[in-house]
Amino acid sequence: MAANxxxxxxxxxxxxxxxxxxxxxxxxxxxxxxxNQARALPPTAIRPPGALPEHDFQGACIRCGMCVxxxxxxxxxxxxxxxxxxxxxxxxxARKIPCEMCEDIPCIKACPTGALDHKLxxxxxxxxxxxxxxxxxxxxxxxxxxxxxxxxxCPVIDKAIxxxxxxxxxxxxxxxxxxxxxxxxxxxxxxxxKSCVLEVAAIKVFPVRLAKGELGKHYRLGWEEKKKxxxxxxxxxxxxxxxxxxxxxxxxGPGLSGxxxxxxxxxxxxxQALHGxxx
Amino acid sequence: MSVNRKIGxxxxxAKGWLGAHKWLLLRRVTQLGILSLFLLGPxxxxxxxxxxxxxxxxxxxxxxxxxxxxxxxxLAGHVPEKLALIGVVIVIGFYALAGGRAxxxxxxxxxxxxxxxxxxxxxxGIKSGARFxxxxxxxxxxxxxxxxxxxxxxxxxxxxxVSMLHRGLIFGLGxxxxxxxxxxxxxxxxxxxxxxGHLCPVGAFYSLIGKTSLVRVNALQRAACNDxxxxxxxxxEPQVIKPALKGAAKxxxxxxxxxxxxxxxxCIDVCSKDVFGFVLRFNNKAENSAPQGKAAALGxxx
Lengths: 279, 302
Prior knowledge:
The complex is a heterodimer of chains A (279) and B (302). Chain A contains nine helices and seven strands. Chain A has 279 residues and is of the alpha+beta class. Chain B starts with 8 loop residues before the first helix and ends in a 5-residue tail after the last helix.
């Protein structure tokens, strides 16, 4: 009889254990899937400078908000449960208020875990995101006007954003100054997106993984390889043959001769695109 | 014991209202005081404490880190910077002395939510309740740690009501109020002491830190117990009282040794016979000054 009660209570105990384990397991599975979903950073949210890659960041950030507190411009917020990114983690929205790129980077210094990497000491090397001019149809400079605002507000002017000159086919006599982002120098601070004069910004900052393409690993750029080797890799280099009607000659068009155009003389301290000559 | 009898009525008669609410008041002052220190910065610009319960920096010098969230971060594969590590040593040291779950009773903001639910339960005599094991919290604790290890993220922090409420009060609540309301309603209608006493892995973790903590409640005068049951009704973890209060015959000392005692002191408050008191854990002796009654006749063998 005693043995019977014993085995009964053991059975009950095991059943209770199984019940709890299954319940908690189901709950854990749900939570795991939810956490997995929240792993992708939404395109409009930008992490503070020095943030580890998103996946590592969510394992390293303990959601204490010290970076939020030490940001002198109050640009950072902690995500609320209804927001699109991991609850409690810091972010900012470039269009609302961009990063001011403090030289001493107080947000990184405040981070107790290193979710914001303490190895980043030069704010110009930050990669919070990457600006991309996403809409050429509405960008005023692409329409042939001289807005230039994104270019002028860029803290890394002439490196992260340059104005590339191009012929204005519409008027046939003007130059277009096309804002062009260079990923090597863009920190993703968001100043350009914030200051874009349009109703909806034509230039936006995205997480690098969304904004950047990637060449195939096996791709080789002929001109780069040629420079590296110091000589043509296709020997002998064949002179280009033009099939022009008799009596015609290529006299202009430096682009065809292979020689680079000598750069316009630069005055120190003046952004290249603002030089008066040749405009 | 009728449903309408007010818990602690005898204690109020014996000690006065203030005497019967001493530890409760001290606890509320502490809870609200800590919260105000955190709120003073954002609301009044007086920066004594920065951060939240996950990590805070007091007067720009004293770091305090929540060991549970830091352990999850470690399991997720990240080694923190020095300040967070110093903070975690201080916090573990403190709760290892003061009682692990003192965090629950004296610091955690959810305590006021679930205490209100418990109070309303008693007030309106709500007896309903899904009963499930109090060890569920350890299962959930294990699950959250495994999840951190498996996903490489601090998954539990996505939904943790404890940090959500504290962070929300300081940095902006958003819809976190709905989750806190859910905890409140769960405790009120679904399960008595459901959240803090059965499910919360934060409390479970702190109970492990304070397993051998120094500060304990002791049923010093258990011989004087008149079996009014008030302490059992008011206690959020009543299972911890029984061995200490009723264990004399079995030779069990009067010290409450369970890691799940939250050191809230409510049993001390509601006892008209002053059976309970805070002691250091070395003091596991009952006192013999009790009046000769039925309980005293059982003798104190410890």
